Amino acid sequence: MKVYFIGAGPGDPELITLRGRRLIEEAEIVMYAGSLVNPKLLDWALPEAEIYDTSSMDLDAICAVFKKRAGHTGSIARLHTGDPSLYGAIGEQIRFCRAERISWEVVPGVSSFSASAAALGRELTLPGISQTVILSRRQGRTPVPEPQRLRALAQSQSTLVLFLSASMVKEAMEEIAPFYGTDTPAAAVYRASWPDQRIIEGTISTLAGLMQEAGIDRQAIILVGDVLNPGSFEASKLYDANFSHGFRSGRETTGGEA
């Protein structure tokens, strides 16, 4: 038996990888977080596959399924929302598999932050504006190490993407405002790529109020930075006619440097 920790994507079933879909189609057991993963993905499961909704299961119950099937052939498709490497809670499950010598593998997926950027139609890294993207969260019941608190991260003024922070957006914006400025663009994407997706756009000073008016306090990615309203920015060197790289020679210029 092999356990596959599969990134199920942000919501739209078409945003799972081809490999992820194939593993669902082949699995004897499919485990998914029903509160987050689109149940339409289960349409690809074998008719005889065992299905577990893990939203009501704790770690011991989940690992008990792994252990019960450890001596069998076949596979378990363990579906996690987005990409499992980001807030996927796979670390403790992998630790169990290692301890029990259960074969396992991680299959990447499309993260909700990528789907949110796509929904907004924004590039998160623009030359001259931001070349760094920080993925983080505000401290809640899960602690955040002191050097990684928002006040520390905001000092770089990088593009900031916050997971699991929609219910604390007011406090988050207050923490970063001294470093970004209150007029810096900020946005929230609720349930990116789902049919009921909603987009809220504002600034650091207005986003919390706009989200409250819209009734959004969960399942939203928050994005902050001037890339959301870039205006004038430098064009990428990648397609600059005067820029040479391994696959193209730049145009020769006269009267100065390229």
In words, what does this structure look like?
This protein is an alpha/beta fold and 258 residues long. It folds into 2 domains: 106 residues, 3-Layer(aba) Sandwich (Cobalt-precorrin-4 Transmethylase, domain 1); 117 residues, Methyltransferase, Cobalt-precorrin-4 Transmethylase, Domain 2, CATH 3.30.950. Helix content is 24%, strand content 20%. It contains 7 helices and 10 strands. It has a 5-stranded parallel beta sheet, sandwiched between helices. Helix 5 links the parallel strand 6 and strand 7. Helix 2 packs parallel to helix 3. It starts with a strand and ends in a 34-residue tail after the last strand.
| SS class | alpha/beta
Secondary-structure element series: EHEEHEHEHEHEHEEHE
Total number of helices: 7
Question: How confident is the prediction overall: mean pLDDT?
Answer: 92
Radius of gyration (CA) equals 22 Å
Give the % helix: 10-25%
The backbone outline, from C-alpha atoms, is globular
N-C termini distance: 59 Å
Number of strands: 10
How many domains, as an integer? 2
Largest sheet features: 5 strands, parallel
Q: Might you state the CATH topology name of the largest domain?
A: Methyltransferase, Cobalt-precorrin-4 Transmethylase, Domain 2
